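[recover] target loaded
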């Protein structure tokens, strides 16, 4: 498509006659949102788990032309939602070429654009802004100033241009004026100092800003969107009351309500398509990883005020796949099939994302992370194999059997080891966890069953001994195992 390049061409183009011309950015978003709702298309592609909770509230706020704030704990897709808003903007809009504040050619707000239009008339150059260029985002930090957001006098501009300091042409515009005719988002709003938050009053109520006390009014056209973490209200700062009063809608986000929704989000966001050997992730491995986050959110040793980010299962999945990938390359196997042992190898991806209470600090993040994995595996076994008779497996361990399978061993050798345990391979096949003839998946399924039994305390598991009876008997000297023990590696 060819876009007009001068004001004269723009005047004679269909664009000048369309209702798009002259409407505000919030009207633009409202109109495009209404069209998308009417067509039945996806409103916010890529946002999973909020269809019946957050998105209806967000749609209502946008239809009402409200400035809004997303309020929630870390890792709840707040920034992701804000960036999706650009999809509701027009594909391109015309601006006066060279304008720092995206002046509308038919309604300029800056002195630069007014003088350019007066001097050049219909020959005034026109540029076209893409929708992604109309989104400005700022992470709030305590050192952000009014000059950063609104602007300041630039003495260098004054000296070079021979202007008085009071001349509008000497102004250096901040982020807000540069977001004119677009969306301006501030992440972690409470981190802004109170006096900077006061600087947002005018733009939210009257729609204009004033720079450095000079009598210059810029009637900006902008949608303001904010994010905040409730923990920050007391830990690092607060949103001042008059500013909260000017925010049209407060939308409270949440973590995925079900494990299945969490799995969808994790699978969507995790980097697993890497090339190289084929990747085959059993669904029960994905479920164990997701349940680690759910278990952590319920654990009393984990700080509820900080929350457990959805980034935790995403990072764990990526690390587990990496460990399986490393093993596959070392052993020359054909497929990358992550196992439960690969989730244990991803413990460093868990510990850094947990804020612990005092009791948790005493026990240590590594210990808690391993407990969370075991409990998650236990829940998966309970849900998927609730009717299974695992008595023969437990009886073998109670009779002195022990099994230690290194995490980096070949699938064929692991399979032989698990085959020693009576009924183990038959059980995973009967419950559809894995076909017996798929060795890598069968190994992963056997690890799941044994981890589940360990979580139920029907057998024991340790890094030193592997899987043993729930109350280990006296070990035979020099072997580390009771009667019937087997170890290989």
């Amino acid at each position: 498509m060819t876009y007009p390049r001068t004001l004269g061409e723009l005047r004679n183009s269909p664009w000048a006659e369309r209702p798009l011309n002259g409407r505000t950015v919030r009207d633009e978003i409202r109109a495009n949102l209404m069209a998308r709702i009417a067509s039945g298309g996806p409103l916010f592609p890529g946002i999973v788990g909020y269809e019946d909770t957050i998105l209806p509230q967000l749609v209502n706020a946008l239809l009402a032309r409200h400035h809004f704030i997303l309020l929630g704990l870390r890792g709840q897709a707040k920034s992701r939602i804000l960036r999706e808003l650009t999809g509701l903007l027009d594909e391109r809009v015309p601006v006066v070429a060279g304008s720092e504040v995206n002046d509308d050619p038919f309604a300029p707000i800056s002195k630069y654009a007014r003088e350019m239009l007066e001097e050049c008339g219909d020959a005034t150059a026109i540029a076209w802004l893409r929708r992604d260029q109309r989104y400005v985002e700022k992470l709030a930090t305590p050192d952000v100033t009014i000059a950063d957001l609104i602007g300041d006098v630039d003495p260098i501009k004054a000296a070079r241009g021979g202007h008085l300091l009071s001349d509008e042409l000497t102004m250096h515009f901040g982020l807000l004026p540069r977001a004119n005719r677009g969306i301006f988002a501030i992440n972690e709003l409470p981190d802004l100092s109170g006096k900077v938050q006061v600087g947002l009053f005018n733009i939210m109520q009257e729609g204009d800003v004033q720079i450095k006390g000079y009598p210059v009014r810029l009637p900006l056209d902008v949608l303001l969107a904010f994010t905040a973490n409730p923990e920050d209200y007391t830990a690092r700062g607060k949103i001042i009351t008059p500013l909260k009063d000017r925010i049209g809608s407060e939308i409270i986000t949440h973590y995925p309500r079900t494990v299945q929704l969490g799995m969808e989000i994790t699978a969507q966001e995790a980097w697993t398509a890497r090339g190289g050997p084929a990747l085959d992730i059993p669904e029960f491995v994905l479920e164990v990883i997701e349940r680690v986050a759910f278990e952590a959110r319920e654990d009393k040793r984990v700080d509820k005020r900080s929350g457990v980010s959805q980034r935790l299962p995403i990072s764990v999945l990526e690390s587990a796949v990496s460990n399986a990938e490393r093993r596959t390359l070392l052993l020359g196997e054909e497929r990358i099939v992550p196992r439960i042992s690969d989730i244990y190898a991803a413990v460093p991806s868990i510990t850094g994302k947990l804020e612990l209470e005092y009791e948790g600090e005493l026990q240590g993040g590594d210990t808690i992370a391993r407990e969370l994995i075991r409990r998650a595996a236990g829940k998966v076994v309970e849900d998927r194999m609730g009717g299974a008779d695992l008595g023969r497996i437990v009886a073998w361990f109670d009779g002195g059997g022990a099994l230690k399978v290194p995490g980096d061993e070949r699938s064929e050798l692991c399979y032989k080891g698990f085959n020693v345990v009576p009924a183990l391979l038959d059980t995973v096949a009967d419950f559809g966890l894995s076909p017996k003839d798929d060795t890598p998946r069968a190994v992963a399924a056997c690890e799941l069953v044994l981890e589940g039994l360990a979580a139920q305390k029907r057998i024991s598991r340790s890094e030193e001994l592997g899987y043993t009876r729930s109350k280990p008997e006296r070990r035979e000297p020099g072997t580390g195992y009771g009667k019937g023990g087997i170890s290989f590696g």
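[recover] notes: Residues 267 and 314 are 8 Å apart (CA to CA).
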